[in-house]
Amino acid sequence: MAKHLFGTDGVRGIPGEYPLDDATICAIGRALGDYLRSTGAEKRVLLGMDTRESGMLIVAKLIRGLAEAGSLPVFAGVITTPGVACMVRERGFAAGMVVSASHNPWHDNGIKLISSSGMKFPDEIEARMERDILLHRQSIPGQPVVSAALSVERDLDLAYLAFLRGRAIPGALLEKLRIVLDCANGAASELAPSLFRSLGAEVIAIHDRPDGRNINAGCGALHPESMQTRVVDVGAHLGVAFDGDADRAMFSTAAGNLVNGDGVLLALARYFKSNGMLKGPAVVGTTMANLGLERVLAKDGLKLARVPVGDRYVLEEMIRSGANLGGEQSGHIILLDDSTTGDGMLTALKIACLVNLYGPLEKLVEGLKIFPQTIVNVKVSQKPPLESLPEVSRLLSEAERALGDAGRVVLRYSGTEPLARVMVEAETQADVDRWSQALASALRAAIGA
Question: Which of 38, 55, 139, 218 is the most buried (most CB within 10 A)?
């Protein structure tokens, strides 16, 4: 069964409108509860949210649906998505639900479902629940759900921070580290500074005062410029920018240079290899990973396995191949020996430890030459198979022949938005501009919104 509600990262939309209207949200809670009951699973379900003003009302609706199915909801309050995944796994919950739209603007929101393993549910289970959601929403009364004062289990935050502290690299002394943390006015606003201060680091926290509407607003992983500037201004050793739910992180060197997920994978791969910790035949990345990463890994005797964009696909390949390191250019990094999901705070902790033990971040990513790359987003009215669009297919073939081994083109649809993404990578910016513009124009002409 094809899925319509669930994208690559849960259900997203605008609160009050389908699929985040009252009836559908309640039905999502009911469908998850029904599924858990049918499997005879533990009844407790952990819920958490980021800092969007719509979060509490959505949580209340989910709790109503869960209760109708006989589940026992437990509310963690504001906590990161990987924090919920960690506590589900560590505390034996049947499932988790996170109310967050990750890096999207404040007016969006979403619902992410997490299985008892701390991973996303398989596609076939999501499809089954989606069928039940569409049935349930027809029978749910239309009265609004009032957001009551919900009891928050505060000890879950403390347990999550303790879990992370236990994953610090032995021998690292963060008391010597000055670090800038851009919390994106999101779920990491209290947790990330608390983690690093508890380990002795000198923390300069920015964008750590959420008001319900400033999450991701010109800050965080998608807008790290102010973090980079602040690192230089205060003479910090390292800078980190999280997104709204802190499942990803971007970094700044002491000189203010940006290091994305590709650089993080290189630094961690080198550390793992030198300490005999790297597992599997390859580091797992996506089609978006820069050619420069693939080439520098090869020089270090390592391979890069590419999968479609989406952390679920990275994780699936890691499990299939036995790899323990994988991630995305966007900053989702999966350290499978420690966690089953991308965790920005965990990644930041590992990189901070490496900087303390082995020197500046520039040194850790030495030799990484980033090929010019651009991503053009094209709003689309529909998502037919890209190979069914004649002019797009013709231009794609022409671009691939022209670039050869010196470049790449990736065309794909967004899993969460009505967008087609054109990624072009080449040795020269001129080639990048030429082919990205041509392909984007062809897509607009064929299926533009």
Answer: 55
| Rounded CA separation 406/400 (Å) | 10
Name the strand (E) or helix (H) holding 334.
strand 333-335
List the CATH code of the domain at 166-364. Answer: 3.40.120.10
How would residue 8 be classed by pLDDT, with cut points 50, 70 and 90?
A: confident
In terms of CATH, what superfamily is 373-447? Alpha-D-phosphohexomutase, C-terminal domain (3.30.310.50)
Long-range contacts of 360-365 (CB under 8 A, 24+ apart): 360/237, 360/253, 360/254, 361/238, 361/251, 361/252, 361/253, 361/254, 361/259, 361/263, 361/267, 362/253, 362/254, 362/255, 362/257, 364/263, 364/266, 364/267, 364/270, 364/271, 365/259, 365/263, 365/266, 365/267
Summarize the confidence of residues 41-65 as an average pLDDT. 95
- Other residues' Cβ atoms within 10 Å of the Cβ of residue 14: 15
Residue located via tokens 């060197």: 253
- Chain centre to alpha carbon of residue 73: 24
Catalytic-role residue among 71, 100, 102, 116: 102
Q: In angstroms, what CA-CA distances link 64 with 25, 26, 115, 166?
A: 9, 6, 20, 36
d(CA 362, CA 368): 10
Residue 136, Cβ density class (10 Å: 0-12 exposed, 13-18 middle, ≥19 buried): buried
The residue behind tokens 């689309």 is 380
Residue 182 has pLDDT above 60, yes or no: yes
User: Residue 251 is encoded by which pair of tokens?
Assistant: 């970094």
Rounded distance, CA 282 to CA 274, Å? 15
Instruction: Look at residue 54 and give its three-state secondary structure.
Output: coil
Catalytic residue flag (residue 339): no
Choosing among 3.30.420.10, 3.40.120.10, 3.40.50.720, 3.10.28.10, the CATH entry for 11-157 is: 3.40.120.10
